[in-house]
Amino acid sequence: MWRTSNSSNGSPSTQACDLLLQALGGPEEATRFTFIDACAGAGGPTPLLESTMNARLAASGCQPVNFILTDLWPDIKAWKKITKKSEHITYIDEPIDATKPRTLAKPGTKECRIFNLCFHHFDNGAAEKVLATAVQSTDAFMIFEMTHRTLPSILNTTIVILSVFITTIYDFYWSPVHLLFTYLIPIVPIFYAIDGYVSCARGRTAGETWELLYRQPDIVLDEWELKSGEQTALLPFGKLYWYFGVKKAAMT
């Protein structure tokens, strides 16, 4: 999904990279950051973001930046494969809890914490802590989502669910197990449906997201710029929803 490009805006990973550069004030500012994937899972789009970001920076005559994979449940096996392919991606092998304040950027750099299609997994209590920790411990954060409580998102999710019936034939025609649990006993599409529609239901509007910060009396946001938006990521209905916070001092 992150690689797919069927719109003039480019693939979702390309758009995410461009949004990061824009939010941070351009290549010269972005090169001062270390990028932390706060809920990396098996790696997600980080390899794509890293290659695109550093290509953009090189084209602007800037130094490359580093990405660090972290998670509460580190997938070391998957991360080792990723880091072997790029000298600019590393990982922290101990569990990192995104709800607890901790600076993770490399010395001498600023920190931008990224949440790739994962923020909706947190309930409101945990989401409050995640955002508070980002404000307390970083210089910038970016949330990307592709599911939401909107008709385009629900329609896009439906297309993804139904596409399983087509992609299985092409990708797993040789596997009786895949064919069985896709067509005869449709566990795979049912799983996709439950995961997709629940993710849509758990999506937050910009107002709901920022309210999680505003209602915390000990969080001071005077030095922060908060913005959000959406744009077409995958035709016909797929949207990339984004929410970013940047400490104003980090942009000077």
Q: What does this protein look like?
A:
The protein is an alpha/beta fold and 252 residues long. The protein has 9 helices and 7 strands; from the N terminus they run H-H-E-H-E-H-E-E-H-E-H-H-H-H-E-E. It has a 7-stranded mixed sheet, with helices on both faces. Strand 4 (110-116), helix 5 and strand 5 form a beta-alpha-beta unit. Helix 1 (12-24) crosses helix 3 and helix 6 packs antiparallel against helix 8 (187-202). The longest helix has 21 residues, at 151-171. The mean pLDDT is 95.
Helix-strand blueprint:
Layout: H1 12-24, H2 27-30, E1 33-37, H3 46-59, E2 66-69, H4 76-85, E3 89-91, E4 110-116, H5 124-137, E5 140-145, H6 151-171, H7 176-184, H8 187-202, H9 206-214, E6 224-234, E7 238-247
Helix pairs in contact: 1-3, 6-7, 6-8
Summarize the structure.
By secondary structure, the protein is α/β, with parallel strands linked by helices. Helix content is 44%, strand content 18%. It has helices spanning 12-24, 27-30, 46-59, 76-85, 124-137, 151-171, 176-184, 187-202, 206-214, and strands at residues 33-37, 66-69, 89-91, 110-116, 140-145, 224-234, 238-247.
Show unreliable segments.
Answer: none
Q: Tell me how many strands there are.
A: 7
Strand content: 15-25%
Tell me the helix content: 40-55%
H/E order of the elements? HHEHEHEEHEHHHHEE
The outline comes out as: globular
Largest sheet: 7 strands, mixed
Structure class: alpha/beta
Oligomer: single chain
Q: Specify Rg, calculated over alpha carbons.
A: 19 Å
